[in-house]
Design goal:
The complex is a heterotrimer of chains A (about 180), B (about 100) and C (about 675).
Chain A lengths: L3 H23 L3 H21 L3 H25 L14 H21 L17 H9 L3 H23 L10 H4 L1
Chain B lengths: L4 H21 L3 H25 L6 H31 L13
Chain C lengths: L2 H23 L8 H26 L5 E11 L2 E10 H24 L6 H20 L3 H19 L6 H32 L4 H9 L5 H18 L8 H4 L5 H10 L1 H11 L1 H4 L3 H24 L3 H21 L3 H29 L10 H4 L1 H15 L5 H19 L4 H26 L6 H6 L5 H16 L2 H4 L3 H5 L8 H7 L4 H4 L3 H27 L5 H7 L1 H8 L4 H45 L1 H29 L4 H25 L1
Antiparallel strand pairs in C: 1-2
Helix pairs in contact in C: 1-2, 1-4, 2-3, 3-4, 3-10, 3-15, 3-21, 4-5, 5-6, 6-8, 8-11, 8-13, 10-15, 11-14, 11-15, 13-14, 13-19, 13-28, 14-15, 14-18, 14-19, 15-17, 15-18, 15-21, 17-19, 17-21, 18-19, 18-26, 19-26, 29-30
The chains are: A mainly alpha (about 180), B mainly alpha (about 100), C mainly alpha (about 675).
Chain lengths: ~180, ~100, ~675
Amino acid sequence: MDALLPSLLFYAFAGVILGSAAFTAFARDIVHAAFSLLFTFFGLACLYLYLGADFVGLSQVVIYVGGILVLLLFGVMFTGHQTQETEKRTVNFYWGLALIALLGAGMVPALLKAPWAVKSAAELPEAKSTISSIATLLMTDYLLPFEIASLLLLMALIGAVVIARGETKTDEGESPETSA
Amino acid sequence: MTIGIEHYLVVSLVLFLLGLFIVVTHRNGVRILMGVELILNSANLNFVAFNRYMPDSALSGNVFAIFVIILAAAEAVVALAIVLAVYQQFSTIHMDEISNMKH
Amino acid sequence: MHLLEILSWLILALPLAAFAVQMAVGARLPRYGDFISIGAISLSLVFCLLVFFRVIVLEYSPDYVFAVSYPWFSGGSIEFRWGFYIDNVTAFMLVVVGVVSTLVHIYSVGYMHGEENYHRFFAYLGLFSFSMFLLVLCDNLFTLYIAWELVGVSSYLLIGFYYTKHSAANACIKAFLTTRVGDVFMFLGILLLVLYTGQLAYHDVFNAVAHGEISGTVLTIAIVCLFGGAVGKSAQFPLHVWLPDAMEGPTPVSALIHAATMVAAGVYMVGRMFPMFSQSAEAMLVIAYIGLITAFFAATIAITQNDIKRVLAYSTISQLGYMVTALGVGAYTAGLYHLMTHAFFKALLFLCSGSVIHAAHTQDMREMGGLRKKMPITFATMLIGTLAIAGVPFFSGFGSKDAIMAGALAFGSEHGAHMTIFIGLFVAAGMTAFYMFRLIFMTFYGESRNQHSYDHAHESPASMTVPLLILAVLSIAGGFGLYGGLWFNHLVVPPALQEAAHAAAEHGGEHGGAHGEAWIHYGAMGLSIFVAALGIFLSWVVYGVKWISAEKTAAAIRPIYQLSFNKYYVDEFYQKIVIAFVLWIRKVLAAFDRIVIDGIVNLTAPLMRGGATFSGGFDHYVVDGVLNLGALIVQAAGSVSVMLQNGVIQSYILKAAIAAAVILVVHQYIQFWL
């Protein structure tokens, strides 16, 4: 009885994640798909918390929901929400279905059969807060990747501005970017 | 029934397949980006789940997941910028119509 | 850091920096930046002289060696190091390269004045100087190979400097490809040595050879392969064909690269490798005879050429043959000494010819004549160079050539069968004197054969004549190396390893000339004076006072004359080989066509006829069916590949993913079923 509630929680999260992801995949309207993605990300965040990864879960909420999803919605808006009902949304639809069926058929038995070197659920240690440990790791063992990641973000920022600005020539500060 | 690593792996696999399906079939560039995000999230779920279930959990999986999130953020920004640039250039975001690199 | 180490770095860095600056901003600098190149190379020369002073004058020891090496990278079991190796030979070579290079830089200011791409010319000169210094200074085979290719590249760039001229473009390609043939052999040789000894640095390799880690046939093959590089670079027979064509480059380039330094690199390399080369008597014999053939045949060709630079080119080939022969017969000191003296007087001759060409606006000697009065400095200096190369006493060429002859004579007196080498060199020396004075008489004496160009001829500017004068002094002074205290002889002794000492001594080394039997030394000296005098006299008779008509003589010995005039048809021979090879391939393909394709056709025809006797329609259906089937298959393949390459990225992802999925599923379920 002890284990039933956590199990039910897992199935509930998994159901939310997969259901909303499937809606993202098959929805006709792209705005619906984007909002459905919100539930996927939230469900994943809950699953992370469920796994004892509190910092990752919180980052998931902040970055994915707060950042990337908003960005995707902006993308939808900027590129025109103009797709007509009659227009074809997909290519190779049945090939895609066949592909995921084939891949699923190949991978499910593989990952069920594999002798994972893991502990059973019963002997898992009590989950503790990981935040301070992760902070220590980032400043010690992973300091170089951490710094490189910050550099990468800076480059992505500049790169995105340069790419998205397109062909608008900037002459003596007339461009809106410099005045902003 | 207790939840083992396999449960997470199956969820992650299905998430990955849905993401791949989106990438392969949808014409809209922004939708394709959503698929890519799903794929990255499925990988993240694997990292975190394995971190929990591995005997010596030194939080490496969590740290990797964080780096993947950072990477995903950078990727999303640049990819959306590219989609916008493509939209300006070709007046469409249907990726199957943009085949100028053929030959 | 040791002083020599610092100096080595500076010597290398300055020309390279000049190259970089000239390439980057040379076109925008005042005077196109020639002062930068000249300043850099002059400083390099100063440092070379410092090295010379430090090594030769202060140490004055035959076995002084300074070596330093730095880790480079490690691959497999070999750790690559590179470094500097400075001994007496290095010091001598540094001075030779530095002096000639600096003088050519200065000379080029006058000669190349107003040319297009003036700054690029100096950039290339800088690159060449850097590569040549590296080649001289380096201490291992790998760096040697790199420097070797670098000088090849700069030579290529400089030959093709007038790249808009068709013949120059062809000549630089020819030079590069011909020397490549030799370089491939050299690389094979280096690989063999590394394979067997696991070492790259000269001294480790020599030690390994001395300890017998590589010996016998393999060693001989490795040595001959290495020598192949020298054959290419030093224009030895049969790869000499590129050097005369390389004269398409500007004359200062001919003087620097194709007379004094780069072509001598092969000889220098053989000299460097001498402790190893002397381990294989067979290989040494091959080297001696290659050198002899080169020296002799090039001399005979030089007699009949009319282009002033080509005469000098063939004489260069011939003199390089001398050096190679000297090393081959074990006259190590003599060979390297000739390398030094030759660098000075041949550079002088080339620069003089450049001065003449500059004035006469032609390279054809038949168009010249009587220039003696118009260009007194050029005439005087060129005469000094000619006297030096002809082997007249008190000029530098006499000492070195005499030493080589003595070495060959000593070798011949020991191994009677190889007296041919001495005789061949002896005859070639006479021819050298003859064709060099032919050049002098045709160019500077008599009356002009082209009044127009004679009228416009004038002495060259000071930037050109001053280098000539300096080189002329060196062409005389260089001769006192052997006679003024024998210091070259004292400092450059055959490097012999402990175990190798006997073999080298047995081989009848250079010491035949120095402290061998006296008759060899004086005999060789007397004979070489005699033969030089004879050559000069004959030349005077034919071209000076014209007692014997050159034309009539040529007509009398027409077949031989034609052979020489056409350079023994070596070029044509190569042309024929290439063409024959292409024709052969064509023939093979034609044969395939005839036998296999036609055979199938011929075979089907009777079959079809036979079938037709059974049923008229059968033939029709089979042939058409096969054809249609073939067409269908091609069409299907075409449409499939068109489908694959539709330009839509998503479909590419789809196909790749499906392929992966299929592999995965097959892998999974075959395991299940088995």
